[in-house]
TrEMBL record:
InterPro entries: DedA_domain, VTT_dom
Keywords, ordered alphabetically: Membrane, Transmembrane, Transmembrane helix
Transmembrane segment boundaries: 6-24, 36-58, 97-122, 129-151
Source organism per UniProt: Methanocaldococcus infernus (strain DSM 11812 / JCM 15783 / ME)
Official protein name in the record: SNARE associated Golgi protein-associated protein
Organism placement in taxonomy: Archaea, Methanobacteriati, Methanobacteriota, Methanomada group, Methanococci
Length: 156
């Protein structure tokens, strides 16, 4: 069983707890956007508001862990986890956009976890980092949920 199947089963079997685990792990190591699993959770009938709150809070908690792991263990670990190419892209992106980059990355192909790791490595001001993470996850997760609700309303 691969990681994607494990996460699918987490959502199917454990619902909100599954969303929490996936949301928490996204900024740390996992390669799949949590939005895939948010959509599955909604299709399974989970409450959209609870899914939004849980996924956003979990992503923020995971982003905290990532920040401090990066600060503690440095570039070598980051490259092992996200790859050298993603590390370079994230570093260049943050160098260019700073804290705004954390918000912008939500709408780019740069993996979210790469940005989180680089923010910790470069010791971006923690409070600003967490505010940017919260806003970016709320917008990204909220957009997916809004699109689902609009589609559901149109097809209902």
């Amino acid at each position: 069983m691969n990681l994607k199947e494990i996460f699918l089963n987490l959502v199917k079997e454990y619902g909100y707890l599954g969303i929490f685990i996936i949301g928490f792990s996204e900024p740390i190591f996992q390669p799949f956007p949590v939005e895939i699993f948010i959509t599955i959770a909604l299709l399974l009938g989970l409450n959209w508001f609870l899914v939004l709150i849980i996924s956003t809070v979990a992503s923020n908690l995971g982003a905290m862990v990532t920040y401090f792991l990066a600060k503690r263990f440095g570039e070598g670990l980051i490259i092992k986890l996200v790859g050298e190419d993603n590390f370079k892209k994230a570093s260049e992106f943050l160098e260019k956009y700073g804290i705004l980059g954390v918000l912008i990355v939500s709408f780019t192909p740069i993996p979210f976890e790469a940005i989180c790791w680089v923010c910790g490595l470069f010791e971006m001001p923690f409070n600003k980092y967490m505010i940017a993470v919260f806003i970016s996850r709320l917008i990204r997760h909220g957009t997916v949920i809004l699109l689902y609700l609009l589609y559901k309303g149109v097809t209902a």
